[in-house]
Amino acid sequence: MVTAANVEATAVKTMGWLSADETTIVVPVYQRQYRWDIGACEQLLGDIRAVADSDARQTHFLGSILSTLNTDDSTDSELVLIDGQQRITTLMLLVAALHHTIRDTDPELAAELEKVLVRASDPSRTKLRPHRAWAQVFESVVLASRPAHDELRDSRFDDNYAFFRSQVRVDEVPRIWRGLQKLEHVAITLGADANAQQIFESLNSTGEPLRDHELIHNYVLMGLSHAEQSEIEDDYWVPIEQNTGEFIAGFWRHYLVMTTGREVAVAGERGVYDAFRQQFPRLDLETLRTSAATWREYSAAYRVLLNPSLEPDAEVARQLAYVNTFGRGTYPLVMRAYRDYTLGTATRGELIGILENIQSLLLRRTVVGISTDRLVARLCRAGQQGPENLVRAISRITPSDERVRVALKYGELPHALYVLGRIAEVQSLEQLNGLDLEHIVPLTPGDSWSGDGERIWADYTDDEQNSHRALAQTLGNLTLLEQSLAERAFDAPFLQKRTLYGQSAVPVTQQLSDVAAWTTAAIAERTVRLTETFLRVWPRSAVAGIDDDDLTPILDAQKRRGWPRGWDREFEYVEYRGEHWEVYDVKHLFNRIFKRLWADARADVVVFSDSRGGPIYEAQAWNGQWDQLDENRYLYMGWDSKYMLTAIQGVLDEAHFAAEVFVKYSYIGAIM
C-alpha cells in the first residue's frame, strides 16, 4: 500500500483527542470569527442527548477536523485549525458549562472535564486559543475568570455558554458527558508540504449539495435495519415520490407549513430539512410507520392539487384549477381541506366554500396592491381551530368592496383571463384556451384607429390619448374573444370591432355590439357594471373587521438581519391583545412580553420556561444581563435576538395569546 506523503487522517474519539496532553489548538488570524448561534447549539445538544440515550455501540460523527502543525519555533507543538473552528469552539463552551455546573459537587467528573479545557502543563491556559481579537473573552468564559461586576458585553461565547448552562441541570451532566464521549471525527493533519487551501476547498467543495427532500429521505431511513428500510421505502417513500414527482421538495415544504403553522425558509438555507427534524425529532419504527402513512395520504392529495383533472367531481376539479391560477403557494391550506373532503370529515360544500374564499382573498389583495406573502401559515393556524376560525381569519385580511371598486376603476386587471372567464361564466379554464384577451382600445393604437367613427387616433389630443392609454388594461376595456375573431379585430377601429363582437358566443363580449362609441366614459361605465359582477363572484365574508395596516402576526414575525443606514427601529409598534405598545425592537419586546405574562399568565410562563430550560431562573447563576421578575425569579436578557423572538413566540403560544399579538415592521428612520 502506498501512503500519502503530506496528509495524515485518523478516526478518533473527539473527547479523547481533545483531552490528550499533546492536543493544543490555535485558530489563525485569517479565520472568520465564531458565529454559531443558539439555534445551532440547540441542535448540537439535541444530537448529543440522542446519542447518549442510544445503544452503547452507536456513535455520532462530527465530520472532519483539518489542522496543520504550527511551524513557529517560538510556540509549543500547537495544531493550527484550518476547518472545524465552529464545532470545536462550541464543544469547548459546552464542556465548560458542564465543568462549572458540577465542579463543587463531583470533583472526579470535574477533573475529566478539565482535561478537555486546559493545558496539563499550565491550567491557566485554555487548550483552544481562538481568534486573537476574542481570545481574552473566550478564556474568561471557559476559565470562569470574568469579574462578577464586569461591564456588560455582547459575544457569542457568552450567549452560547449561557444557553448551555441554562439547558443542562446538575443531574443531567453525566448523561451529556456520556454523549460527548460518543462523538467521533476524522482528524486530518497536514504535513509541511501540503496545500492546505486546496484540501480545504476539497472538503468544502462547491458541488451540488444534497437537497432538502434528499436529506429528509436519509434522515427517515438512517438507523433502520435493511429490512425496515426496504419496508419504509417501498410502502411509503416510493408512493410519495410517485404522487409528487418533480414537486417533491415543494410537497415537503407545504406539508410542514400546514402542520406547523409557520413559514419555512428555503432560500440559501436547509430550512425545510431543519423544520422537518424539529417536527420529527424522534422517529422509532412504529412512529415512523404512522407518520409515513399520513405523509402518503397528503401526497395523494397533493397529486390532485397539481393536476385537478384527476378529481372526479367536476365542480371540485374546477375550483381546484381556479386556485392554481394563483400558483402553488396556497397548497398548505388547500391540501388539508382537500384531504378532509376525501376522508369524509368535510363536506363537498365546505371544501368549495374554502376554495372560493381563498380565491376572493388572493384576487382582492392583488387588485388593491396588498402583498399576499406570508399569509398561508397564519391561515393554516386558524384552520387548525376549525372552519369558522378560518373564515374569520380570511375575512379579516380580505380588502373591502370599496377598496376593490376604486382599484378596478384605475388599476391594471390581474389574472385577466381567469377574471373575465368567471365573469362570463366560462365553465372551465380549458374552455379559455380558444379565447384571446381582447383590448377594446388597443395597447398601442395605430394612427387610423377610431373609437367613434368620426375622429382618428392621430386627431386625439395628448390628454385624450393619455386617458385612453391609462384605461387600456382596466376591467372595463378588456373582454374575451374567439381566436378567429380576435385575429380580424386586431387594431381595427371600434365600429369594425363592434360587428365582430356581435358574432362572439361570450355574453359580456356580445353586449359590446350595442355600444355606439368607445370612449373613456364608455370604459368607465362598463367598469362600474362589471365591478358589481366581480364583487358577487368574489365576495368578502363580513364575519370580521378588516385589518388594513399590514400588521404581521407575532408567530409570522422574523428577525431581520438589519436595515439600511439611518433606520432607528425595527418595529413601528406592537399590538398586544388590543393594546398599542410603542416597542421598537426584539430585545425590549422580549422583556415586556415576559414581564406582562408574568402578571397575566404566570403558570403558562413557568411551564414554558421549565420545558425549554429558560429564560427564567431562580438564581443569577452566571454573570450577564438579568432582570428581576419577583423576589425569587430572574429573567436572563443576554440571549441573541433570534432566540428572543423564538421565545416570545413560544411563550405567547403556550399562553394561547399568540393570535392576539401583532407587530408593525418599521420603514421609518432617523434620516427620513
Structure keywords:
672 residues, alpha+beta, four-stranded antiparallel sheet, 15 strands, 49% helix, 10% strand, disordered C terminus
Structural commentary:
- This protein has 672 residues and is an alpha+beta fold.
- Helices cover 49% and strands 10% of the residues.
- It is built from 28 helices and 15 strands.
- The strands form 4 sheets. It has a 6-stranded mixed beta sheet with strand order 1-6-3-4-2-5, sandwiched between helices. A 4-stranded antiparallel beta sheet has the order 9-15-10-11, with no helix packed on it. A 3-stranded antiparallel beta sheet has the order 12-14-13.
- Strand 13 and strand 14 (634-636) form a beta hairpin.
- Helix 15 (331-343) runs antiparallel to helix 16, helix 26 crosses helix 27 and helix 26 (586-600) packs parallel to helix 28.
- The longest helix has 22 residues, at 285-306.
- It is elongated, with a radius of gyration of 32 Å.
- Residues 563-567 and 668-672 have low confidence and may be disordered.
What is the helix fraction of residues, given as a range?
40-55%
Strand adjacency order, main sheet: 1-6-3-4-2-5
Number of strands: 15
Low-confidence stretches: 563-567, 668-672
Rg over C-alpha atoms, rounded to the nearest angstrom: 32 Å
Q: What profile does the largest beta sheet have?
A: 6 strands, mixed
Assess the beta-strand content as a share of residues.
5-15%
Distance between the termini: 71 Å
Structural class, by secondary structure, is alpha+beta
Net shape: elongated
Query: How many distinct helices?
Result: 28
State mean pLDDT (0 to 100 scale): 86
